[in-house]
Design brief:
Oligomer: heterodimer
Structural class of chain B: mainly alpha
Number of strands of chain A: 0
Helix content of chain B: 55-70%
Number of strands of chain B: 0
Distance between the termini of chain B: 32 Å
Strand content of chain A: under 5%
Distance between the termini of chain A: 42 Å
Order of helices and strands of chain A: HHHHHHHHH
Number of helices of chain A: 9
Shape of chain A: elongated
Largest sheet of chain A: none
Shape of chain B: elongated
């Protein structure tokens, strides 16, 4: 895997073209580049490691098998495609597995800050995680893409197959709901 | 035009506290926040919410995921498979193709028409002294009309054959998961679905549309 990391910066678009021709090394480079973003979207949508890993694996396989459908010069970035793929797989995964969205069985380590701060931040993280899971899926997805992944509203709209106005409405409702819910925790906000 | 507090609140809820996301409104919002304690309060609240959101951290993905995916992907991606599937399914001999017989029949018909028009009509002998010339002149166009009608029928059969070939290619494209040539059962099932009106026969404009169809898992109303 180290050899793959050492490959010079090739554009995602070029990698997609190579993948479409069956180039596994190009696939490895692209997958390495985007695997973490796929995982962070999947985990924030469904915070159970096994589910998130299933989604990531499925997304990687689909990138490989559907790479020929990628057409450069259409204005859409490869990463936006991948986000869209991740979003749709999250929705499909939920539908198939009928997940219990409020079940939280993972605790992710945060290596920053002092131990007491770390503990406090960990607790806050768990509360936020649970509050996010109580949001409707599309509100949660909009927040994950725009706040956590840093997509513009237009990119998020493309990834979710909706309009920019739609994304804005989702973001407003998501932030209002979270603010209301988290305000009930003393000292959290 | 100065910003209003309701507008400022709305922008905060849409874009968060990162002014780089506010585009053209950013400078105006900064100025408004300095001038309005209420706006500053709203901004502080939004910042607190974002700090809380950021406390939900996610680890990096397990690198083994890529190894597992590499095992799963196996052979060539679908593109290569598609190319193979779009090649002719069977190389039939030329005389076994419907277009061959259609063309052959058309050529024969054209030859007959030519013969009739040149000779003035085969069945009516022009050398027959009992046969008035006017009868010959009337009989020949009737023969020509009959032959032209046959030509039209054959042309329609050719068009139908082309349409069937088009439908076979559409059936092939509609069943991307299937490897290898389609069986007769596959084609029958496809045609049944097509003629039942449950399938839109028009193909997407290009492969980007196919990609969209593939990705379009769940587009719901807000």
């Amino acid at each position: 895997m180290e050899a793959v990391r050492a490959v010079p910066n090739i554009k995602d678009e070029d990698l997609m073209a190579q993948i479409a021709n069956g180039d596994k090394q190009a696939f490895q480079v692209l997958a390495q580049r985007h695997m973490n973003l796929l995982y962070s979207v999947a985990f924030r949508m469904y915070p159970q490691r096994a589910d998130a890993e299933d989604i990531v694996q499925e997304a990687l396989v689909r990138i490989w098998s559907k790479a020929h459908l990628w057409r450069p010069g259409t204005g859409a970035a490869v990463s936006t495609w991948i986000y869209r793929l991740a979003y749709n797989l999250c929705i499909d995964h939920k539908r198939r597995a009928n997940l219990q969205t409020t079940v939280l069985d993972e605790r992710h380590e945060d290596s920053s800050d002092r131990p007491d701060m770390k503990f406090q931040r960990g607790q806050t993280g768990e509360i936020v995680k649970a509050a996010l899971q109580r949001l409707p899926e599309r509100q949660r997805a909009a927040l994950v893409l725009c706040h956590y992944q840093g997509l513009t509203n237009a990119e998020a709209a493309e990834a979710m197959g909706t309009s920019v106005k739609g994304i804005e409405a989702l973001l407003v409702r998501a932030r209002q709901a979270l603010k209301k819910e988290l305000s009930s925790y003393k000292g959290l906000l | 035009m100065s910003m209003k507090i309701t507008q400022f609140r709305k922008m905060l809820e849409v874009n968060g506290t990162d002014f780089t996301r506010w585009d053209a409104d950013a400078a105006q919002a900064r100025a408004f926040m300095k001038a309005s304690p209420e706006a500053q309060g709203l901004y502080d609240e939004a910042e607190a919410l974002e700090r809380a959101l950021d406390s939900f951290a996610v680890d990096a993905a397990d690198p083994a995921l890529l190894d597992k995916a590499m095992v799963r992907i196996g052979g060539k991606p679908e593109a290569a498979a598609t190319v193979h599937r779009l090649e002719p399914r069977k190389q039939k001999p030329v005389f076994a193709r419907p277009l061959y017989w259609g063309g052959a029949m058309a050529a024969c018909a054209a030859a007959i028409v030519l013969f009739v028009s040149v000779t003035g009509g085969g069945p009516v002998a022009p050398s027959d002294p009992q046969q008035p010339a006017a009868v010959v002149a009337e009989a020949a166009p009737a023969e020509v009309d009959t032959l032209l009608a046959e030509l039209d029928t054959m042309a329609e059969e050719e068009i139908a054959a082309q349409e069937i070939i088009g439908l076979l290619e559409l059936a092939d494209a509609r069943m991307p998961a299937k490897q290898g040539p389609l069986s007769d059962e596959d084609i029958d099932a496809f045609l049944e679905e097509l003629f039942s009106g449950e399938m839109e026969p028009a193909e997407p404009a290009d492969e980007m549309d196919l990609w969209d169809l593939f990705l379009e898992g769940d587009i719901r109303e807000l």
